[in-house]
Design brief:
Blueprint (H helix, E strand, L loop, with lengths): L1 H8 L2 H22 L11 H10 L2 H18 L11 H42 L3 E6 L5 E4 L1 H13 L4 E9 L10 E7 L5 E10 L5 E9 L1 H55 L6 H29 L6 E4 L1 H11 L1 H6 L3 E6 L6 E4 H18 L8 E8 L5 E7 L6 H4 L17 H11 L4 E5 L5 E7 L27
Parallel strand pairs: 8-10
Antiparallel strand pairs: 1-2, 1-6, 3-4, 4-5, 5-6, 7-9, 10-11, 11-13, 12-13
Helix pairs in contact: 2-3, 2-4, 3-4, 3-5, 4-5, 7-8, 9-11, 11-13
The chain binds adenosine-5'-diphosphate.
Adenosine-5'-diphosphate binds next to α11 and α13.
Length: 489
């Protein structure tokens, strides 16, 4: 029994209880000695606080009761009676008892609240998907480690540095940029191959000294995702490049086909004229002249395409948009005739002069006309395309290609300018992207709307004059800049 009591006294709580009881005895003794002149009863709060803080509320309340009893015994009216009536003695005893108990209860609530706050913080720190670790300023003595750091990574990093390859010091940010001047480094676990980002900085600790705070994040997944994204982008870039080349080749083939067909037709006409008994040489000369003009146009197209592929600086010159519109229609003359589609030229007079690359803008109009023509297939004889030019409200000109085809359903409209989006069996889905790139490189806009007769309408603007002059070099049209645009203006 005695040994058991002695063992209790070796514990922290046991020592606190003994100290409190001795303190209560001493206070009541000195209170008695000083004849209650100094009123030492306030000092009972010290052992009560000690018991409440170290052991708990029940112990605190017990200390309060013991204190009142000690005060009552030492100050009993039998020995010293300083009150005019004994009732005041009991009144003071009760008031002291209530105050002591309230004090114990308040202290206990404060302690519980502090413990709650501490626990909440620990829950947060333990719940974080990062390892958090605090060491003394030399980085040797661990002061705190959250669960994640301790269990999963931390111990491994701290105890087995050799296992980790310090990849690179990624960055040391200036203290102005981070609150505690944290520096970052990447570590790779040579055993598991996982990557970690270790952030280290100094912070003030609760005893005032500076300590090292380390935050360790497993960044393997995001590193892998970034690598995959890079690979994917490279693939997409290569695919876009080859597809754009294919698109240019097919556009070239398409454009070259027109003059070649025309040359064949004029040649047939010449043969027919010459095989007459009395050939009309004048007529033959006219046909040969037209045939030559078509041959020159074909060679022109090849030249222009070649220089375009070489990423030449565009030939920016003040040009007549109506003239460019007419040339574009001529380029599609035979196809239009074959499909019996009529192009109604609605060209405004007195348009402001605009500066642009004639070949490229011609290409855009041909492309839009071609799309309109294809939208009317299977050949719908008698179809109508309106090619309109007008002065733009914000200066410059607007060109519109409006067809009376089936129009563009909403599901298609949202993806019109998405690279490689096509509804055609042999389409590439790059025509509109390239058109938009060309127009935007001229600081203009290209957008789609519903046509007046239910078909599709494509409009683009070209800004006016040297003040709005387009960039001196067009972006690479062979891939990179045709991706990821929204569909409508
Ligand atoms: P491609 O014609 O080679 O498929 P585009 O970028 O030129 O590529 O056009 C993408 C898609 O937009 C086409 O497949 C077609 O579905 C739609 N489209 C373009 N112009 C029209 C139009 N005038 N009428 C209806 N649909 C159109």
């Amino acid at each position: 029994m005695l040994r058991h009591s002695l063992r209790i006294l070796t514990t922290r709580r046991g020592r606190a209880a003994l100290l409190a009881i001795v303190a209560i005895g001493l206070v009541s003794f000195f209170d008695y000695l000083t004849g209650y002149e100094i009123r030492l009863s306030i000092l009972y709060l010290v052992p009560i606080a000690l018991m409440t803080w170290s052991i708990g509320l029940a112990a605190g309340l017990l200390a309060a009761v013991l204190s009142v009893l000690a005060w009552g015994v030492a100050f009993h009216p039998t020995y010293t009676h300083t009150y005019s009536h004994p009732i005041y003695y009991y009144w003071e005893g009760s008031v002291l008892g209530i105050i002591f108990m309230l004090f114990a209860m308040l202290l206990h609530s404060l302690r519980t609240a502090l413990a709650h706050a501490d626990r909440r913080l620990l829950h947060i720190l333990d719940g974080l998907p990062a390892g958090i670790y605090v060491t003394d300023d030399e980085g040797e003595r661990p002061l705190y480690a959250n669960k994640h750091f301790d269990q999963a990574i931390g111990t491994a990093v701290e105890q087995n540095e050799a296992r980790f390859e310090r990849a690179s010091v990624v960055e040391t940010l200036a203290p102005a940029e981070t609150t505690a001047g944290f520096h970052y480094e990447e570590l790779r676990d040579l055993q598991t191959g996982r990557w970690f980002l270790l952030q280290t900085g100094t912070i003030p600790w609760d005893d005032g000294r500076r300590v090292q705070l380390k935050v360790l994040l497993d960044v393997t997944d995001s590193k892998q995702a970034a690598a995959l994204r890079r690979q994917h982008q490279e693939l997409l870039h290569n695919a876009a490049r080859s597809a754009v080349l294919a698109e240019i080749a097919s556009m070239l083939g398409h454009e070259i086909n027109q003059p070649l067909m025309a040359i064949a037709t004029y040649n047939d006409a010449c043969v027919m004229l010459l095989s007459r008994d009395q050939p009309d040489i004048a007529e033959v000369i006219v046909a040969l002249g037209k045939s030559r003009a078509q041959a020159v146009r074909a060679s022109d197209i090849i030249d222009r395409t070649r220089s375009f592929l070489r990423r030449r600086t565009p030939t920016l010159a003040p040009s007549d948009i109506n003239e460019t519109a007419r040339v574009s229609v001529m380029a599609l003359e035979l196809e239009l005739q074959e499909a019996a589609v009529h192009v109604q030229m609605d060209l405004a007079a007195d348009l402001p002069e605009v500066v642009y690359d004639r070949t490229l803008v011609e290409q855009v109009i041909v492309n839009l006309l071609h799309n309109a023509l294809e939208a009317m297939r299977p050949p719908r004889r008698g179809g109508l395309i309106v090619l309109r030019t007008a002065a733009a409200q914000e200066g410059g000109v607007t060109v519109s290609v409006i067809d009376d085809g089936p129009g563009i359903p909403d599901s298609v409209a949202t993806r019109l300018f998405t690279p490689f989006f096509t509804t055609k069996t042999h389409g590439l889905g790059l025509g509109l992207c390239i058109c938009r790139s060309v127009i935007e490189a001229h600081a203009g806009h290209l957008w789609h709307a519903r046509g007046e007769h239910g078909g599709a309408a494509f409009h683009f603007t070209l800004p006016q004059g040297p003040g709005d002059a387009p960039p001196t070099e067009l972006p690479d049209m062979r891939g990179a800049d045709v991706r990821g645009r929204s569909n409508e203006r």
